[in-house]
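Input:
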Amino acid sequence: MAELFSNLALGFGVAFTPINLLLCLIGALVGTLVGVLPGIGTIATVAMLLPITFGLPPVGALIMLAGIYYGAQYGGSTTSILVNIPGEATSVVTTLDGFQMAKQGRAGPALAIAAIGSFFAGCVATVLIAVLGAPLTKLALAFGPAEYFSLMVLGLIFAVVLAKGSVLKAIAMIVFGLLLSMVGSDIETGASRMAFNIPELADGLGFATVAMGVFGFAEIIRNLDAGAEMDRELVQQKITGLMPTKKDLIDSAPAIVRGTILGSILGILPGGGAVIASFAAYTFEKKIAKDPSRFGRGAIEGVASPESANNAAAQTSFIPLLTLGIPPNAVMALMVGAMTIHGIVPGPQVMQKQPDLVWGMIASMWIGNLMLIIINLPLVGIWVRLLRVPYRLMYPSIVIFCAIGIYSINNAPVDVVLAGAFGLLGYWLIKHDFEPAPLLLGMVLGPLMEENLRRALLISRGDWTVFLTRPLSATLMAIAAFLLVLAVLPSLRKKRDEVFVESET
Amino acid sequence: MSDTPSHGPGRSIMPRWVRGPQDFVGGIALMAIALFAFWASSDLQGMHGFSFGAGTAPRMFAGLLLGLGFAVMVVGVVSEGPHLATYAWRGPLFVSLSILSFAVTIRPLGLVISAFASFVISALGTPETRWKETIIVGICLTIGCSLLFPYALGLPLQLFPRFLVP
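Output:
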């Protein structure tokens, strides 16, 4: 316990330096700004803004990136409530009741409850990371290559089970991602693999390049399909009375708590945590409500619970990353990319060797959430005005911004061309109902998986059963197999589809 | 592997026994990617003894992808699925052209010209573009980027064409 407090104290000491506070503020603000823009989700936001953190010291860069991450989460809910367009997948359910509340002239309380819920969830999640961090790190040190490999398999299977759509296609996307990660130099022999003598490919496909292409450019192209003039039902009347009434607070308090608990649990599990958390929280609220018919007509619980859940999940998803070095979702995968650029290898060693980095980031999350709640409520008016910018002017700006961003990573024009190519690939994937998120996850885990697989087999002298004979590894593999079977079973499939259908009603 | 297939909508080009054209074509494309990867990694060393060679893992994943692509294709044959989606040409074409033009011009011509030209090209991606406002916004954005990236963020970007700067 004493250790916990000293760790948190260390973290706040790092986070409270003026420069880090400023970076946290900028990150949260910029994240919100981009998150508010419809059509750009969290992943694209983080990918787009990755280059601007390059010049910073590692702690500052991570603090700013984390700020961008939850800022974008928060910005997504603002658009959901005000214009009925979810800024990103995690706030899809927020549109259901949030927009109805806005129509009834209660946009203020809806935004406030979303912010308060997010803040509460953020506080709980921060403490949770601090509590679980150390023990999980100790567990991670007991892991050998075989265990790591099995754990990654489990993580990928989780991602598949929790993703929407076809299980088969999600697995195919993961393997495609793994294959893409093989491009570049072999870690052990240094042999150039599938690089076709292009010098820019010798180091492998840049992670940010692929992410920006598949998420940024592809999304823009797809949005243009539908016609740039997206149907935007702006809430025109002035937003008055930001503060929720006493009744609102009483109604939403238990929903916030429930959402936080659900979100925290789902966030730790690998695989699209935040998205599934908000859906699950909404469904749960609707199930236990005395009068379910209120949902979809402006029930404040329908905003409070999913918003708390997605924020809790967004933050607890840092736990597997910081303790085990395994990114549980695509955004965390981007964080790995950012850490690698700064020469940090995520995993148990980071917690021990650079405690200031880890705890500073954790503390900054709490500060960032506090900043969001203070800053953003007065800024709502500006965000609304931003949404009136027509898409025909916005998308070329985003294209240019992305292009400059990618170019500035390595000063390599080839990277920009590659991102464009991946944009087209992403567009094709969307058209064929393949999800790009598992691809990204596979791409990040690819080198780690190969390395651990090789090492495990080298230690076992080529014996493949090593994954099943070591107890920890066998357990992980068994869970993975069990999950996969469950996901394919028809009864559960139906349930799983139901959760996702909810968003379309 | 990045070019967009330009199949039209409808099932006229698909044989009748293909019940889910979207998955069918998707599966075939994945198999093609896998075969391409096999070919691309064919010059790499395989297993020696019980340790992996450079080519082992790529071929392993390519093999997996081949199998999965086949499975997706089979799903497209046996179960009812959505038709091929229609592809728009205008958005993808001009956005790609804009990205390409940025990549080609950023080195010799510098950020100012490159960013503005790309902005205008990508604006062609939708018929709703109005030229006057596009050019004004383009100029503003170019100025903004020229201040933000090289100065505020300190990235080493060249602003003006090489032949103008001594």
